Amino acid sequence: MVEQAGALRTQEAVGFPAELVSTLPGPDEVDDSTPATIRELVDYYKTSRGRHPRATNMWVARSADLLDQFDPYADVDKIAPRPLVMIAGTEASTLPHSEDAIEQAGENAEIFTIEGATHVDLYDRDKYVTPAVDKLTEFFDQYLANA
């Protein structure tokens, strides 16, 4: 895909339209054999729960090399000593990324986990979102109240 990105840029430069790729290709229907992370993404993005008419579920294929180079946690250690809170569900497939970031970010970093929540649950499920908002309110009140 990275090699293809260069070729696609050249095609666009000479007038061809951008090639779009589905963010979540694959089934609209899932079953017990579908990996849990895919099931929850399909449940959110491919149903009325999370679908929006202007959200196309597509990205420009020429950006694959940029996505390949992007690491949101690469410089998290440079945040220190600034306070950092990360919120993750205990069942989130992304929890290890948050834990690694907190470990790198220094003494003023904390992880707040929400029992039973998956990554996508934190998008819109009130029983998980409410404690996340409460934690953020506490965090902002503590660190931004006198800023």
Polypeptide structure, described:
It is a single chain. This protein is an alpha+beta fold. It has two domains: 68 residues, no CATH class; 69 residues, no CATH class. Helices cover 42% and strands 12% of the residues. The protein has a two-stranded antiparallel sheet. The relative contact order is 0.13. The mean pLDDT is 91.
> Largest sheet, described in full?
2 strands, antiparallel
Taking the alpha carbons of the first and last residues, their distance comes to 45 Å
- The beta-strand count equals 4
Please, how many helices? 6
User: What's the pLDDT, averaged over the residues?
Assistant: 91
- Going by helix content, strand content and strand pairing, the class is alpha+beta
Q: Domains counted in the coordinates: how many?
A: 2
Q: What share of the residues lie within helices?
A: 40-55%
Q: Quick one: overall form?
A: globular
Radius of gyration, taken over Cα atoms and rounded to an integer in Å? 19 Å
Portion in beta strands: 5-15%
Stretches where pLDDT is under 50 for at least 5 consecutive residues are: none
Strand/helix succession? HEHEHEHEHH
Q: Looking across the biggest beta sheet, what order are the strands in?
A: 1-2
